[in-house]
Model the fold of this input.
Amino acid sequence: MQLKNVYEAVDALAPFRLSKEYCERYGFHDNSGVILDCGGEVRGVLCSLDLSARAVEEAKRAGANVIVTHHPAIFYPVASFTAEEPVLQAAMAGISVISAHLNLDAAQGGIDEELMLGLGGGACEVMHALSEGGYGRVYDVPEETLSAFTARIKARFATERVTVYGDRPVRRVASFCGAGLDESTVAFAKSRGADTVVSSDGKHHLIAALAEAGMNAVLLTHYAAEVYGFVRFAENLKQKIKGAPVSVFVDERLM
Done:
């Protein structure tokens, strides 16, 4: 098995063309695809949300020479590397890297959709629709108190680090995986009648805007909100890749 075969398996689950489509249609930047190609036969694949020093060490321990990440190992062009950089550590160890970012956020069965499903949603309206899938969702959920909704999130996403603002019962949720809170997503949530917004990395002025509108804000850690769907992606990738073992690394420190 070669690196191109791993790329094709990732592409079958989260088509890389969706990243290009997303950037062109909505004005975003991404760097998904093969980030580092060290050549050679693929001996094993490690899935990790981030390319970190710990992920590189885990790949070595597992005998994997390919790491598949969600967050791009290189996002913007860089001028130099130091020995502490995980990309250089991976290169020195002969570990290739593939990153699936916006395409995996937006794919059907991708991270944004899995966040919605984990929160109890189903039929939804998509904010940034693509030829398939998309990003940002609003949907109805069975009514419950905010405290009960939060307790369910902590259990489902295996995290205690959930920050909550508000006190309204939860009936209609808008969710955005990753650092999804900005002026446009807050406006989308308001315009679609959401009473609760779930995302990560919220800035004060956006949380204040939701509070002014009488809406709940529920913030998971960026990692917990995305690794939930990423683990499911890794499980599906195992079924696509038959020529080498596939494992997943979860950094519990970030949950």
The chain is about 40% helix and 20% strand. The chain has two domains: 3-101+227-254, 108-220.
